[in-house]
Design goal:
CATH class: Alpha Beta
Radius of gyration: 17 Å
Largest sheet: 7 strands, parallel
CATH superfamily: NAD(P)-binding Rossmann-like Domain
Length: about 250
């Protein structure tokens, strides 16, 4: 197993990509902290993993609140005795034009999509260093962080920030044997913040199909495992080839 005896925090793990990653990581031997703002979702995913013979526990956290991030990381390390992996997956989108978005909406998107990954990385890294084994951090950006859109001005800006956050974290944490990398999806699973997955959702890519949560979960597993031991501060596009053709507002 690729993650045997390791402990992983996955944010936004109550549905969609985060849920699939939690199940995959557990199947590879990790004890998974299923972190979500919705208790029922988190407990359902954790219970499903346990029923399948894996190890998981639900943790409720509003990632826009620093004190809740601190408490969550502390609780995970206390419950499992260690922390090896962090996946900063949770995100929300504004879907707003410049003239429509309010400052409060802008601040909320940045709090969840950019500030939360920084804070989770800060406190998780401290636990990893304390454990003396190093660790892995996987951030989730988006193709929207690479080009502009007619909507979602806060989301595109925040996801661009995640890319350089990854690079800076990689540099600053390398001395502690903590590897930081980033996955870059496009239209995988249900839209950001929604439950419904429409297999007929229009996509433009070289695979001619929508991405599925398992597609990104496998890329997350790659960065969380020793398979990527010599890869640091990198971006891995999991977009069906979209970035190759760069259609614009995708």
């Amino acid at each position: 197993m690729k993650l045997a005896n390791q402990v992983a925090i996955i944010t936004g793990a109550g549905r969609n990509i985060g849920e699939e990653a939690a199940k995959l990581f557990a199947s590879e031997g990790a004890a998974v902290a299923v972190v979500d703002m919705d208790r029922a979702r988190a407990e359902k995913v954790a219970s499903g993993i346990a029923a399948s013979g894996g190890k998981a526990k639900a943790y409720v956290c509003d990632v826009a609140q620093e004190d809740q991030i601190v408490d969550t990381v502390k609780a995970v390390a206390g419950d499992w005795g260690r922390l090896d992996i962090l996946v900063n997956n949770v995100a929300i989108s504004d879907n707003k034009h410049l003239f429509d978005i309010t400052k409060a909406e802008w601040d909320r998107v940045f709090a969840v999509c950019l500030t939360a990954p920084m804070l989770f990385s800060k406190y998780a890294a401290k636990e990893m260093i304390k454990g003396g084994r190093g660790g892995k951090i996987v951030n989730v950006s988006s193709t929207s962080g690479h080009y502009g859109r007619t909507r979602a001005i806060a989301y595109t800006s925040a996801k661009a920030g995640v890319i350089n956050l990854t690079r800076s974290l990689a540099i600053q944490l390398a001395a502690h044997n903590i590897r930081v990398n980033c996955v870059v999806p496009n239209k995988i699973g249900s839209p950001v913040g929604k439950d419904e997955f429409n297999p007929d959702r229009k996509v433009i890519n070289l695979r001619n199909r929508p991405g599925e949560p398992i597609d990104l979960a496998r890329a997350m597993l790659f960065f969380a495992s020793d398979d990527s031991d010599f890869i640091v501060g990198a971006e891995l596009f999991v977009d069906g080839g979209l970035a190759v053709i760069m259609p614009g507002d995708g």
